[in-house]
Amino acid sequence: MRVRRTAWASAGLLLAVAVGCTGGGDEGAPEATPASAPATTEKPRATSSPTPSPADPVSLPALMRREHTGSGLRLGAVLDRTSAYTRYAVTYEANGLTVSGIMNIPGGEGPFPALVLAHGYIDPDDYFSGQGMPREQDRLARSGYVVLHTDYRNHARSDKDPDNDVNLRLGYTEDVIGAALALRDSGRPEIDGDRLGLFGRSMGGGVVYNTLVVAPGLFDAAVAYAPVSARPQENIDHFQRPDGDPLVAEIEEKHGTPEEDPDFWRGVSPLTYADRVSEPLLIQHGTADDTCPLAWSREVSATFEEAGKDVELRTVDGEGHTFGPRWAAEMDVTEAFFARHLR
């Protein structure tokens, strides 16, 4: 059993004392969708960046300061039984909100390492619980992982947060952190809370970036594929402004434009805090992605590398946003990455 994550909450508080995404990836048609290592000491934390707009409650520094909670993981109805795993409806608590999702639990002897899945953008009015990454949910459970796919706040049976959209959907980051904490402290014999990975696609890739800078050390490794930009203003300009989304005016009225308040916009970009990241990160991005430009992932990779972080950008020749012919091969890469770091 590892010991480093048992001290995460107190270490996070110390970091908070020390320091004083929007956008939508189309989910696309295909997705409409080992034994524990010896105990180790807690891995070193990255040094925190200067914090612009320290009093702004809508910022990554504000999330860094927060004492996050996640608990009350409850298995509800059985949704499916396969030869390899059982699929459940679940809920958990994240910073005072109840968040719904689905969980696949492998058959056989546990405890199993666990993965939190962060899905891409789907209109909450159309979303149903567990939607977004069904191929990954199935395959990873068959490979011996407990899979918790979070619905996020405002989705499916989760509690409502009426300010989440105008606040750049930073609440999704809280929901993912809460999922990890709920897994870690569930007490369920099937779940090894000391072996946790994070896997997000499209908008969920942006949630991965935010989580790594807000809660370094909470996960053991993270994967983002076909991720959105790590600069929220680029996601707004790319996805929302061209469609005349009225939310853009609300966001700019509340927070100002990047020209009017550059400090605010730096404070909501994980690139500003790349030096905080402590987990290895794998980014997978198709060269033919016409939803999320590959250049966005190149910038994240270069920024994290410059900060001395363990990041790998894997470009997938000819693949679009949803990954088609190369999906299975890239999942081989994903699973090998998690196997190396969740052992």
From TrEMBL:
<feature type="region of interest" description="Disordered">
    <location>
        <begin position="26"/>
        <end position="59"/>
    </location>
</feature>
<feature type="signal peptide">
    <location>
        <begin position="1"/>
        <end position="24"/>
    </location>
</feature>
<dbReference type="InterPro" id="IPR050261">
    <property type="entry name" value="FrsA_esterase"/>
</dbReference>
<dbReference type="InterPro" id="IPR001375">
    <property type="entry name" value="Peptidase_S9_cat"/>
</dbReference>
<dbReference type="InterPro" id="IPR029058">
    <property type="entry name" value="AB_hydrolase_fold"/>
</dbReference>
<feature type="domain" description="Peptidase S9 prolyl oligopeptidase catalytic">
    <location>
        <begin position="139"/>
        <end position="341"/>
    </location>
</feature>
<feature type="compositionally biased region" description="Low complexity">
    <location>
        <begin position="30"/>
        <end position="50"/>
    </location>
</feature>
<dbReference type="GO" id="GO:0016787">
    <property type="term" value="F:hydrolase activity"/>
</dbReference>
<keyword id="KW-0732">Signal</keyword>
<comment type="similarity">
    <text>Belongs to the AB hydrolase superfamily.</text>
</comment>
<protein>
    <submittedName>
        <fullName>Alpha/beta fold hydrolase</fullName>
    </submittedName>
</protein>
<dbReference type="Pfam" id="PF00326">
    <property type="entry name" value="Peptidase_S9"/>
</dbReference>
<keyword id="KW-0378">Hydrolase</keyword>
